[in-house]
Amino acid sequence: MKTTQICLRQGIRDGMPIALGYFAVAFTLGIAARNADFSAVQAMVESLTNNASAGEYAVFSLAAARAGYWEVAVMTLVANARYLLMSCSLSQKLAPETPLYHRMLVAFDVTDEIFGISIAYPGQLSPWYTYGAMAVAIPGWGLGTFFGVAVGNVLPPRLVSALSVGLYGMFLAIIIPPAKKDRVVLGLVALSFAASLITSRWTLLTPVPSGVKTIALTVVIALGAAVLFPVKDEAGVPA
Fold it and tell me: pTM above the 0.70 mark?
């Protein structure tokens, strides 16, 4: 069994590239936060407590649209729902005798990247390895958001608007690779774009807040995809 110090150092080492990537991505989130009238400190605190790009972007977008608290809470839950499945999978990687408080601390920062390196850890996962990765990844995310807002406050408005496009580029980078490999994903992406456009232009839905429409579309399309196109496991059985 590796010692706590060794696992912590390994986690910090493997988490450094993640922290650098987080800083760059969170910088564009800071621009979105600035457009939603968040201060640099407020945006950083939000990032330190909600280390999730899609979830944070939902918060900043809904805040900019002056959505209600319940809309923000539900949309954040929907956007971050995949982490529930990652946490269940990661819990099986920990030793059975791992205390509950360790499991809860590890679950606090189950992001795509930290999950990836944690699940690939050889043998049973030491929570100290994940803590090491979290120790550098979380500050990288928070500082990136902070500087995104701070720099956005001193840059010309046109340049800030141009930088905010970077976040959309990040989401395109997420959806394009799987869409190229799977026609079902491609169809769902196209359907989501079309449905979002229709609901934004449909006059009957004008009184409905944009946040509510986004939540409804997300749930309906995701549920329909799960029923019509279930993902099969290695044995060919629907998961």
Answer: no
Q: How far apart (Å, rounded) are the C-alpha atoms in residues 114 and 180? A: 25
Output the CA torsion sign for 111, 112, 116, 117. negative
Residues 110 and 90 sit within 8 Å (Cβ to Cβ):
yes
Mean pLDDT by 10 residues, the chain (239 residues): 81 88 82 87 90 81 83 80 80 88 90 84 89 93 90 69 59 73 87 87 77 74 83 52
Query: Cα separation of 87 and 90, whole Å?
Result: 5
Residue type for position 140:
G
